[in-house]
Amino acid sequence: MSAISTEDYRKTAQEAIEDHVLKNALANLQQRFGRGAAEAYLNLPEGPGLRLKARDVRMEAIGNLDAVLVEFAENVRKNGGHVFFARDAGEAVSYCLEVARRRNIKSVVKGKSMLTEEVNLNPSLQEAGIEVTETDLGEYIVQLAGERPSHILAPAIHKTRGDIGKLFAEKIGIPYTDDPTALTIAARKALREKFLSADMGISGCNLACAETGHITTLSNEGNIRMCATMPRVHLAFMGMERIAQRLRDHDMLLRLLTRGASAQEMPTYVSYVGGPAYPWQADGPEEFHVVIVDNGRTKILADEDFREMLCCLRCSACLNMCPVYAQIGGHAYGHTYCGPVGAVVTPLMKGINRAKDLCTGETLCGACRDACPVNIDIPRMLLGLRAKLAQGDPRWGVRRADRKEKVFYSLWSRLVGNRPLYDAFLRAAAAGQRLLPRQAGMITRLPGSMHGWTKSRNIRPVAGQSFNRQWRRTEAKRKG
Amino acid sequence: MNSDGQERFIKRVRQALGKTSPTGPGPADPFPGGSPDEPAHVIETAGNRDAKQKQRLVECLMESARRHDITAHIHAGMQSAAREMAAIVLEQEPEWGAEKSVVAWRHPLVEGLKLPEALAPHRVPVHFCDHDVSSPVEKQVFVTKAATACVGITSADFCLADSGTLVLKTRPGQALSVSIAPSVHMAVFAAEQIVADLKELYALLTCEPGHAAEGLTRSMTFVCGPSKTADIEATLIHGAHGPREVHIFIIRS
Ligand code: SF4
């Protein structure tokens, strides 16, 4: 589940690149959602400029986070809910286990929540003897297969209907079928029983509002509504940054979020949950808990260069546009968050050295920024991370990635800064390159440690004459 | 409340923000100087719609309903609405168990349909949500009824014309499960309850005195069309966990 495998980026990515089924599925997904989101922004009454306003609203809330979170917690408590502030994954998980123990919880139904993946909740619940069932269809499939989600919104995008048919035949004992409708009905039946018998529902939270003290959950399937209605306890995990100051900010963010995520004007279900059921209510949970989680977020908050990342609504719009994600899928990113958002968040949370391939793997094309409903400048932060890798940074505990590279680049910068020296280098290179292997006019292998550059691409040879030299010659001819 | 970690947590956040004072600058107005979007202005515009504009709102809702796979029915009175509803109930195959049943909100508009009488000859029981059931056992009984029902009938506080979204607050007699657990969801409301869009809705929720005093309630739900999923090879399928059909009945008086 949440084992981190960022170190295997190259290997997993390579495997994914060769997986044509996966690539087709990803292309299909990007075609639908990526383009759709861009169109949906254009169709907003306020126009796509609303993204910029939303970003200001997010930055403002994050700048006031200390006050905003207190206001939120007070409002939830006023309505009879409980709020717990967890400094890290361990505290968040223990609080949840404590509630489960106190209320004698035997089974849990879960709505999709990236944060519970991040804090690795499921194994701890299972160790405590509690049955945990993921109820989002995609998550359910992934859970049955013992895998990890590969997309924020479409967790089972890497699986074909045939895979799912076999999985259901084996795990829930239905006759094999690869008909999506039949498979969905089978899951509906199996999960309905779980909803009705579960003692606790666990959800994430897409947004929260301090002014009213509500969390907001979004779903198209209705599973999160079931999780928040049927069991006797509802516990929601919330990233500390996922909050709007007031209801009208919340409105703007909600509209952008659904457009970015899936190009929808409105998801099927939006629930504003602000407390346990009223005493007179015929259904709904007796207890409502919100666990607000830091888990490395204050560290990001403290660094002005990366604070912007906390504006993220985890909508997955950037995944749906990213050319790198389209090739390698979600698993290569090696942790909960994948795609461009993962390429920034994972290094910041799990160590920049450890996850260095993630931020060097992206292309800096800027598609993610344009897709983002709150206009987060991911390319800027990717460059920031790369600079830390090049220079080292004690504050983030970053070791310089490669000493040789550093030496090479400082020599290179001296070389290109000195014209006569550079000219001499070009002449030498033009002469020396004759010894290198070529194919269709391109050099296929550079010597020594520069070989890395030509491992996966060819390089153009240095021209026989530099532009400067040619210019001087033509000028001389013209005048002479 | 010392064990909730709040104090320590907020202290860390404040440190990260480089602040020393215990309070932030306080929420500033993101739209300073006021704008035509001010809630009061929005409510006024909504309140002054003439017959033609109201008609346009209904047409807009019908169009949105089509886009979102919602079946919309317009009726001039409760009786004809009730007849059509009863006919739809009778058409359904029960999904959970052999018996066909209906669960419904205790709400003047829903009760006004007099469905129990209409369905009694066909032996389809209508279970109303009574708001004095609150012991865990009674709750269990009601939830089971909702989860085995074929059709759930609610009203709505509002319906958004631009997306066909129903807005449901929680009140006595208005259980949450009626709009999520049954196989089919039907909502009946008056044409006056149609609002243009989210902006109008939020303006009403925050500035209309009744709603402002009530707040969002412990649970406020938006429902936009049938439950759906596209998790298997991106094939769209209705009825993932919630209702596979949603009908709205607009009553014009
Ligand atoms: S970075 Fe932007 S586009 Fe990507 S998930 Fe976050 S909010 Fe969405």
Characterize the structure shown:
- The complex is a heterodimer of chains A (480) and B (253).
- Chain A has 480 residues and is of the alpha/beta class.
- In chain A, β5 and β6 (214-219) form a beta hairpin.
- Chain A has a six-stranded parallel sheet, sandwiched between helices.
- Chain A is built from 21 helices and twelve strands.
- The N and C termini of chain A lie far apart (75 Å).
- Chain B is an alpha/beta fold and 253 residues long.
- Chain B has one domain: Rossmann fold, CATH 3.40.50.
- Chain B has a six-stranded parallel sheet. Chain B has a four-stranded mixed sheet with strand order 8-5-6-9.
- The model of chain B is unreliable at 30-34 (pLDDT under 50).
- Bound molecules: iron/sulfur cluster (SF4).
- Iron/sulfur cluster binds next to α15 of chain A.
Secondary structure layout:
The complex is a heterodimer of chains A (about 475) and B (about 250).
Chain A: H1 9-17, H2 20-42, H3 50-63, H4 65-78, E1 82-86, H5 89-102, E2 107-110, H6 114-118, H7 121-127, E3 131-134, H8 137-144, H9 161-171, H10 180-197, E4 200-203, E5 207-209, E6 214-219, H11 223-229, E7 233-239, E8 243-244, H12 247-262, E9 269-273, E10 287-293, H13 297-302, H14 323-328, H15 339-350, H16 356-361, H17 367-371, H18 378-391, H19 403-416, H20 419-432, E11 438-439, E12 442-443, H21 467-479
Parallel strand pairs in A: 1-10, 2-3, 2-4, 4-7, 5-8, 7-10
Antiparallel strand pairs in A: 5-6, 6-9, 11-12
Helix pairs in contact in A: 2-12, 3-12, 9-10, 15-18
Chain B: H1 6-16, H2 39-47, H3 51-67, E1 71-75, H4 78-91, E2 102-104, H5 108-111, H6 115-119, E3 126-128, H7 136-148, E4 151-154, E5 158-160, E6 165-168, E7 184-190, E8 194-195, H8 198-207, H9 209-214, E9 219-223, E10 228-229, E11 237-238, E12 245-251
Parallel strand pairs in B: 1-12, 2-3, 2-4, 4-7, 5-8, 7-12
Antiparallel strand pairs in B: 5-6, 6-9, 10-11
Helix pairs in contact in B: 2-8
Bound molecules: iron/sulfur cluster.
Iron/sulfur cluster (SF4) binds near residues 317, 371, 373, 374 and 376 of chain A.
